[in-house]
Amino acid sequence: MDVTSPSANILHGLKMAPSHALRCCKRALNWVPVLFINLVVGWSYYAYVVELCVYTIPNNAERISYLVIFHIFLTMFIWSYWKTIWSKPAGPSKVFCLPRAEKELYEREERADTQQEILKKVAKNLPVYTRTAGGAIRYCHSCQVIKPDRCHHCSTCEMCVLKMDHHCPWVNNCVGFSNYKYFVLFLAYASLYCVVICATVVQYFIKFWTKQLPETHAKFHILFLFFVAALFFISILSLLSYHLWLVGKNRTTIEAFRAPVFANGPDKNGFSLGCSRNVAEVFGEQAKYWMFPVFSSLGDGHSFVTRLVHIDPEQANSILQQNGKSPADGETNPCVPGNNIQHTVDESKEKVDGGQIVSVTMESEP
Fold it and tell me: Other C-beta atoms within 10 Å of 72: how many?
């Protein structure tokens, strides 16, 4: 019987204490950028509402109209920002974990090729179509799951994140399937918040700069408020433009730098379904929800319709007919995503496993 001595337990506890303390310090430091953003926003609120609207603007009608517009954009900005922060990153479901028998075989096996055979056997029943650069099944040893398409492991969050875009220090969270819409809205409303400040402050900025207004304590706040808002607007607008481009192309930041690899090789447009469908995948099909930070993205984050290539016309007609689509004679219609998307994907996978690459082209892109 193996009995651990009390002294050994104490020694083990002392060894674990520093690592635990360092981890707690790291987690606390991760909130510093978020604290900085909130302090800047809090100061901008004071400078705008008190120093500008209360002490500087003489006209009540102008003051009230400025305050109403300012608070509308501030509310949307704060709402989308905190939704991005507090939305827990979505991870793979238990379906992507190895069954107990296969897991034991995988852990006992030392040969990489045999391990891959075990993973391929399990992945055959999963909607997994992307591979590593070497063509292997994407498996996370830390989380012990087969990675769904577009899923990546975040070392900061210490988990695999569905449709991971990047880890953002300014929200202290991973941006992925569960909160990507909120993140884009956060950038959009942050830009509009800065625009509102610049547009309404500029005339008083000029008056203070040209000494048309008397020297008061509000001068510093208004001058600095305009500069800060302008600088933030320029930096946020560039980031917003980039992410709107990614939405239109249906790519993540990771995929923009490293194209996803399919059975027939890398394809940077592999998930692109055309601009309108790409936008709908992030923001949803109902435009009335687009402006609000409420979840309306399509899908479950585990599987995605792919823009596949090199399809045999007869196989295309068969796949489309099985999904309720009948292409006209002499035409090759695109596969339209619907309730039976999974069936189309499964058909494609069976053909790929059989040695043929079956694919459906949604829309050709440069």
Answer: 14
φ/ψ of residue 168, rounded to 5: -105, 115
Cα 280 to Cα 273: distance, rounded to the nearest angstrom: 10
Pairing between β-strand 139-140 and β-strand 152-154 as defined by DSSP bridges: unpaired
Q: How many residues does the chain have?
A: 366
Instruction: Cite the DSSP H helix spans in 1-97.
Output: 6-29, 32-46, 60-86
CA distance 358 to 264: 10
Q: Is the dihedral of CA 248, 250, 253, 258 positive or negative?
A: negative
pTM for this predicted structure: 0.80
Interval 26-61: pLDDT, tens: 888 999 999 999 999 999 999 999 999 999 999 999
Joined together, the tokens standing for residue 267 give 């394809």
* Lookup result for tokens 């569960």: 178
Rounded distance between C-alpha atoms, residue 337 and residue 323, angstroms: 10
Choose, from 151, 154, 160, 168, the residue flagged as catalytic. 168
| Number of Cα atoms under 13 Å in the Cβ half of residue 317 | 7
CA 80 – CA 186 distance, rounded (Å): 5
Is-catalytic flag, 168?
A: yes
For residue range 127-176, what is the model confidence (pLDDT) as tens digits? 999 999 999 999 999 999 999 999 999 999 999 999 999 999 999 999 99
CA distance 52 to 222: 7
Give Cβ neighbours of residue 143 (< 8 Å, ≥ 6 apart).
Answer: 91, 92, 153, 159, 160
Which helix (H) or strand (E) is 152 found in, with range? strand 152-154
Do 181 and 292 contact (CB within 8 A), yes or no? Answer: no
Cα 83 to Cα 80, 175, 278, distances in angstroms: 5, 11, 22
Please, are residues 34 and 172 in contact by the beta-carbon 8 Å criterion?
Answer: yes
